[in-house]
Amino acid sequence: MNSLGIYIHVPFCGKKCAYCDFYSVAWTKAAAEGYIAAVLRNIRHYSDKSRYVDTIYFGGGTPSLLTAEQLRAILECIRSSFVVSADAEITMEANPCTLTAQKLSELHGIGINRLSVGVQSMSDAELKVLGRVHSAGRAEQAVLEAAEAGFDNISCDLMIALPDQDKESLRFSIERMTALPVQHISAYILKTENGTPFDCEEIRSRLPDEDSTAELYLEMAGLLEERGFMQYEVSNFAKKGYESRHNTRYWKCSDYLGIGPAAHSCYKGRRFAVERDLEGFINSEVQQITVTDESPCGFEEYAMLRLRLKEGLLLGDVPEHREEIMKKLPPLIKSGYAETDGERVWLTPKGFLMSNSVIGYLIFE
């Protein structure tokens, strides 16, 4: 119970993707140096030798824009401020265009042991529509070079329901991606976020409709499982033993501390978020936070998060709600959205596709 995950939000990108609404800004040498100094200050501020850190995650943005030495400084500061377990999972997100054989060797050498590569598609036409700066060939090369550098825990991002995408193009991406030395795939349905360049009729008119999106999702889940990537969460598939330990913290309401502009935390009984402001982060002695929940992980949130996982919700964990949940299950089971063995409730792939509605009915109605 004393374990802790640490999330470092790296807000730099070489180019903003047209579909993305995550907080990111252009990289400059001066901004990166100021950012690193602020990250180190904040790690020391939260220092707690009574907590042992077993997952560290560099997300973004594009963390791979930082140098290996900058990342090493952050890791060393974490190790001097907390107790880091010997088998800690240390993940870094990376854009294929920022990875070289030399850099991958350096990253592996400083202790990063899990790589999450932002591939999105193995179709050059789809990558162009998304505004990605890499080609499918470049992504393939990056993954192969990562394996050669010693990474044996590699994840790739896959986006589905893209403009003009059909089952054939999705199958092509999955077959090409799963032929690579990867152990994990995070697969997301494209959403047109408000205020992004994709938030326009030209793009929306080319997106698959609701029924087609459902077919693509179920096709994806089936294809990935055929290739040994078992679904363990709504959007995540892994070979046995390669589930993301850090992200699983989020779905199990375990503690994690976020550092950096726009980072979120569930820490010491509170949820809080850092302001989306790099300059403010750099110029503040301690990152400025907004508390979003004074008492997180109550029944509704706990149940909602657990039902995102394939293992589902253990009814013994919520005994006061057991009878009510069991009464609501029959129509969901009949429709193929959920299953139960009497002690546990979990969603099927079809249920995951409708997870917001299914979970809302089970937990909130």
UniProtKB/TrEMBL annotation:
Which SUPFAM superfamilies does the annotation name?
Radical SAM enzymes
Q: Does the keyword Metal-binding apply?
A: yes
Occurrences of domain Radical SAM core (ranges): 1-230
Show the PROSITE patterns listed in the entry.
RADICAL_SAM
Q: Which compartment or compartments is the protein found in?
A: Cytoplasm
- Where does the signal peptide begin and end? none
Q: Which InterPro entries match?
A: Coproporphyrinogen-III_oxidase (IPR034505), Elp3/MiaA/NifB-like_rSAM (IPR006638), HemN_C (IPR010723), HemW-like (IPR004559), rSAM (IPR007197), rSAM_horseshoe (IPR023404), rSAM_sf (IPR058240)
Q: Does the keyword 4Fe-4S apply?
A: yes
A single BP term in Gene Ontology? porphyrin-containing compound biosynthetic process
Q: Which GO terms describe its molecular function?
A: 4 iron, 4 sulfur cluster binding; coproporphyrinogen oxidase activity; metal ion binding
What are the UniProt keywords, alphabetically?
A: 4Fe-4S, Chaperone, Cytoplasm, Heme, Iron, Iron-sulfur, Metal-binding, S-adenosyl-L-methionine
Listed GO CC annotations: cytoplasm
> Where on the tree of life does the source sit, at the highest rank?
Bacteria
Q: Which Gene3D superfamilies match?
A: tm_1862 like domain
The UniProt similarity line reads: Belongs to the anaerobic coproporphyrinogen-III oxidase family. HemW subfamily.
Q: What does this protein do?
A: Probably acts as a heme chaperone, transferring heme to an unknown acceptor. Binds one molecule of heme per monomer, possibly covalently. Binds 1 [4Fe-4S] cluster. The cluster is coordinated with 3 cysteines and an exchangeable S-adenosyl-L-methionine.
Per its record, how is this protein called by name?
Heme chaperone HemW
Q: State the species of origin.
A: Ruminococcus flavefaciens 007c
